[in-house]
Amino acid sequence: MSIRELIKEKKFVVTAELAPPKGTDFNKAYDLACRMADFTDAINITEGQSATMRMNSLALSHLLHERNIETIMQLTCRDQNRIALQSALISACSLGIKNVLCVTGDHVKLGDHQEAKQVFDLDSVSLLQAVNSLNGGYDMKGNPLLGATDLCAGAVINPTADPIEPQLIKMKRKIKAGAQFFQTQPVFSAKLLRPVLEIAHSMGIPVLMGVLVLSSAKMANNFNEKSGIRVPEDILEQLNNSSDPKKTGAEIAARLIDEARAMCQGVHLMGISKADVLQSVVSK
Fold it and tell me: Which domains are delineated in the chain?
């Protein structure tokens, strides 16, 4: 079933994140995608994650779609202007891709081409508006299309942001712009979802809680220091005191997934390349 169909039928949706290869050989990515497809409903194909140059999301999404794997193509505002972004959306739909996640994109200072120029002609809200317009048969200037797109557009929110109010304001704007689902940044305390879910439920939009499988206290501390994503002190303490941090991290993730099942419509798994670990966490 497609993401749109799963959402409509109120199914619990599981997605996971996959980065394209840095080069033309996509065999490892395909092997991992095949294993991830056994326990997910769709696979997010990242676009220039951490501002690192890789095969673009459109290419890998198409290659996997040809092999009957449901994907969510990420599209970032960092690297292309509105002409190229609309062209990518039309191209994706023409190639059979059904889902797109509209994101701003990480700053180039995080990546491997720090001298690159950033575009940001659109932001994530106006990119959602572009998808909505193309789905209606018109480009952003109101010019008619020879064939409309039919894309299920998603957006991102960070429930751990402090203060949270700017995120909630932007969430409402994204919904009005056409967002049909949300995936959150990693959440390590499900109660942080409550203000997000209040808005989502009132506006009839599903939320997939982001779950990151931590493998060490060092990894958790790095998130606190660099990403703006908060890992609570009790989680850090569990990892620091554990004789097997990887196992503890998986147990924490499994508990969060159980909590998500009672609160929202799905989970989005991220930040780990071993499909067997992800599968064990989902199945616990």
Answer: 3-212 (3.20.20.220)
